[in-house]
Specification:
By secondary structure, the chain is an alpha+beta fold. It contains three helices and eight strands; from the N terminus they run H-E-E-E-E-E-E-E-H-E-H. The structure holds nickel (II) ion (NI).
Length: about 180
């Protein structure tokens, strides 16, 4: 795949705490290039999602791409989907707590409560506005990435801080 591997920003860098700027021209060459670069960067790091500020870019876009891996052995599989200017229309009352980690916070895992299902809206890379209903793991990734573009990280959502563990211990647990 074309695209260039970008440096992943780390917790402590101010851009991870910034609410990002809406994208005016989703189908522009600049955004297409950004999408390719974000996808190769995410794949190289074995992530299941990545937000623009994680590659140092102030634009409201993220990639959602669940795939089973050593980091997420039980993930469903879906081709990488770019979501531009996303918006949550409604959230289920039902919550689900499960493990999360973050490419910008290496070596750490914790259990995070998230809404089980969401109604969302986003613009595709062709500039089409779409609506979708997400649930389970994909809804979890969406909420994690949507937090990123609003300057939040999963640590902010952890309810039981005793669930924090190292990546190494986590892998023993889920394997
Ligand atoms: Ni993250």
């Amino acid at each position: 795949m074309k695209g260039k591997i970008l440096r992943i920003t780390r917790l402590g860098e101010p851009i991870l705490r910034k609410a990002l700027t809406p994208i005016r021209r989703p189908a522009s060459a600049e955004i297409q290039r950004l999408i390719e670069n974000m996808i190769v960067t995410m794949k190289k790091a074995k992530g299941v999602g990545i937000a623009a500020n994680q590659v140092g870019v102030n634009q409201r876009i993220f990639i959602v791409a669940p795939e089973p891996s050593a980091r997420y052995p039980h993930a469903p599989s879906m081709p990488p989907l770019a979501m531009i200017n996303p918006k949550v229309l409604s959230r289920s009352k039902k919550m689900q707590t499960d493990w999360e980690g973050c490419l910008s916070i290496p070596g750490l895992r914790a259990k995070v409560p998230r809404h089980h299902a969401l109604e969302i809206e986003f613009t595709t890379r062709d500039g089409q506005r779409r609506r979708a209903r997400l649930s389970g793991f994909i809804a979890r990734i969406f909420q994690h990435e949507n937090d990123h573009i609003n300057g939040r990280v999963y640590l902010d959502r952890v309810r039981d801080t005793r669930t924090f563990m190292t990546e190494q211990e986590y892998r023993k647990l889920v394997r």
